[in-house]
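Usage example:
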Amino acid sequence: MPVGPLTLAGIERAARAQLPPEIWDFIEGGSGAERTLAGNREMFGHYALRPRTLVDVSACATGTALLGAELGLPVGIAPMAYHRLVHPDGETATARAAGRAGALLVAGIFASRTLEAIAAEATGPLWLQLYWLRRRDALAALVERAEAAGFAALMLTVDAPRIGHRLRDLRNGFAVPPEIRAVNLDPALMAASHRAGAGSSGIAGHALEQFDPSLTWADLAWLRERTALPLVLKGILTAEDARLAAEHGADAVVVSNHGGRQLDGALPALAALPEVAAAVPPDLPVLLDGGVRTGADIAVALALGARAVLVGRPVLWGLATGGADGVADVLALLRAELEHTLALLGRPTPADLDRTVLAPWPVHR
Ligand code: FNR
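Running the assembly step on the lines above writes:
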């Protein structure tokens, strides 16, 4: 019997071998010199785990409650544009896998399958990510559709008033292939994504045209009035913004630098987590994304105050290599690794993880 991939890194290698280079670069790349992209991973290496012994770990559990939903593991799929770039089934396959694993799925505003088709496949919690479009009527229509389709929360991404300088995409003249579309938005709003211009990728040109860079905290009330759904803000990296998010009625925040794709040099997500967790009321869930690749990474994030993590690129690696089964493999690996970590740490559930689990990784000079 051949052994399948034993880690997410193995699935990554398989995905890289089969994807066209410009698609691989779009997924994998960050902005600028990719310092923040690298920093997201490096930060996890600064922590050592402090295992406790002679604790009954015969029944470890990975389940977690999040905004009224019960997750089988404290993991969600981060919102990512255009899943069909890597597999013809796109987001409907991702939704099937998330349901099987008990993970949250956050569908992106640039999903390449309709909200209704994604919802029809989803058997677990499903949220919708939004960018604030200049065309508020289009935004309002999307919110209405999401509610009707059964989406349980809205996640507004606030770290992208414009798109980061993603040099790989610029070098490749990357534009979204014409057959893959953000089908939930009016085609007239999306035309620029399919055209790379001089010094601009299709993605960046589109954002410039359609995203509203004048958005401020005061505008959130407009969205709040339009929906009873919980509102989650994604892209918070400071205590100041965490406090403002809570004051403006956010129901949860995501500590995120967009996977190193926006401000290069921004804090690694894990480095920002403690100050954000300390700044919000204790009952306001804090999520984290950026560089989570193992069950031990999840344990570190939870110990630093996250209720759950979101995982981005690895989901697309799984989708590329095996469709819904490939995504299910990624989520199953993370769940098994987390359960194993909890057992060997002597902390049988996610709720048992706190700062006492962590020590600085020892550096001897
Ligand atoms: C993203 N991300 C993203 N975020 C968002 O709010 N809206 C979006 O449309 C997208 N699109 C997108 C596409 C691709 C290909 C990637 C890789 C990422 C960012 C994503 O939600 C998340 O913040 C990071 O991917 C998390 O980091 P890791 O897990 O990929 O390291």
